[in-house]
Amino acid sequence: MKIAMVGSGYVGLVSGACFADFGHDVVCIDKDQSKIDRLHEGVMPIYEPGLDALVASNVKAGRLTFTTDLAEGIKDASAIFIAVGTPSRRGDGHADLSFVYAVAREVGESLSNDAVVVTKSTVPVGTGDEVERILKESGTPHQVAVVSNPEFLREGAAIGDFKRPDRIVIGAEDEFGREVMREVYRPLFLNESPILFTSRRSSELIKYAANAFLATKITFINEIADLCEKVGGNVQDVARGIGLDGRIGGKFLHAGPGYGGSCFPKDTLALLKTAEDYESPVRIVEAVAKVNDLRKRAMGRKVVEALGGADAARGKRVAMLGLTFKPNTDDMRDSPAIAVAQTLDDAGVSVAAYDPEGMELAKPLMPEVEMAADPYTAIEGADAVVIVTEWDAFRALDLERVKALANAPVLVDLRNIYQPDAMREAGFAYSSIGRV
Fold it and tell me: Are 40 and 68 contacting, i.e. CB atoms less than 8 angstroms apart?
């Protein structure tokens, strides 16, 4: 089957490469000529473990190609995926669907055969209805079904998530759409991956509801962590204790500096705006979004406190280890590191930072931060070290070297990757999240 993937960013490129690896013929389409040129040269526009090798092998096999020509790219394609960005719109927080609708118009004007148009982008309820209207307005004589097929890819583990998914959600309103999507996902169906067929609107809502629920779990355990610090509990023990309950589960119960990334912040906001439009408020999600925003700057204040308070902190220097919102990605979108660095800057504290993959994207977002060549260069002369992202490279720091390089043995661990007793025995003034 020929598949066209319109949009060669994170979702489009990973999905396109994986579909090609299943044996489909895939064309990835993007308006950005420089991105397509780099892909032809084997240069990935994003960092995702294993993606470069997956793309290279399928390009070599002739199953994966790239183009800026949408009309040529969708020619003879049975399934045309829309995988363009839906960022939060300035002013009101709604998902910006202008790219989705622009693609729908161009597809409608360029179709040369019957096809299924699939919204892979994360879109609010009712978007598929508008895409269908746009396609009908184009006057295409060909049979077209509009299907919703949300993605559930974790950055840093996207290839495994695509090939071994918890579930595949397909929202289709007719048998033509369902039939084509069965063929698209036939390799996974043979591997017994569960496929859930729903209405299109239910499918669109599933993605937002899933992300809002996971964001709620993160925010819940972060607030429990704050309570643990007040009462002398250990949030990791609490998380294990409740996570062993099969009704709750242990995933997304890791206390930290708050969630960020490309999905949770914008998807919770988009869900709130949809609920507002339909006069059906989701108060829990409202609280989650607010608490998470406040938490990030609170983590900066936690570092200031470790420096001795606001008066003592002014003029001091902090080494920040980790900038991306999570490890194994270069994604800086809504990363807690941004708010932590801003809070420190406001307090008169200078920051030197190191991240294995995120520094180039971080530079324009954090102009006040000095980027270091490695962790120990950042630590040299620092009055405190703060771990913001749990990269493997930070899990086994040479603690004696850290003490020798830093002005003071102060370590603030916002990801709980070290044990308090061991760090204190090693001579550190150590603080973490939800542990005393």
Answer: no
Rounded Cα distance between 370 and 368, Å, is: 7
Q: Do the beta carbons of residue 285 and residue 271 sit within 8 Å? A: yes
Q: Is the pLDDT of residue 88 over 90?
A: no
Model confidence at 92: pLDDT above 80: no
**Residue among 193, 190, 172 at smallest CA distance from 181:** 172
Exposure of 133 in the CB half-sphere (CA atoms within 13 A) = 6
Q: Which two tokens stand for residue 246?
A: 């099969």
The sheet carrying 317-321 orders its strands as 370-371, 350-354, 317-321, 384-387, 410-413, 429-431
Residue 189 has a pLDDT of 80
Instruction: Indicate which residues carry an active-site annotation.
Output: 263
User: Phi and psi of 141, rounded to 5°?
Assistant: -85, -5
Under 8 Å CB-to-CB from 151, ≥6 apart: which residues? 11, 15, 83, 120, 122, 207
Euclidean distance between CA atoms 420 and 423, whole angstroms: 5
Could you tell me the sign of the dihedral formed by the alpha carbons of 20, 24, 27, 30, in that order? negative
Answer yes or no: are the C-beta atoms of 23 and 188 closer than 8 Å.
no
**Cβ pair 181, 149 in contact under 8 A:** yes
Task: Please state, in angstroms and as integers, the Cα–Cα distance from residue 287 to each residue in 219, 238, 388, 394, 418, following that order.
Answer: 9, 22, 23, 32, 30
- Poorest-pLDDT segment among 186-200, 201-215, 236-250, 406-420: 186-200
User: Side chain identity at 146, as an amino acid letter?
Assistant: V
Span between the terminal Cα atoms of the chain, in Å: 57
Outline which parts of the chain fall under CATH 3.40.50.720: 2-198, 295-431
For position 167, what pLDDT does the model report? 95
Reported as a single tens digit per residue, the pLDDT across 185-232 is 999 987 788 999 999 999 999 999 999 999 999 999 999 999 999 999
Query: What distance in Å separates the CA atoms of residue 149 and residue 5, rounded to the nearest whole number?
Result: 13
| Domain 2-198 fold | Rossmann fold (3.40.50)
Amino acid 80: pLDDT: 98
Q: How confident is residue 429, by pLDDT bands cut at 50, 70 and 90?
A: very high
- The CA–CA distances, whole Å, from 186 to 99, 144, 195, 258 equal 29, 21, 10, 38
Whether residue 381 contacts residue 407, with contact meaning beta carbons closer than 8 Å, is answered with yes
CATH homologous superfamily for 295-431? NAD(P)-binding Rossmann-like Domain (3.40.50.720)
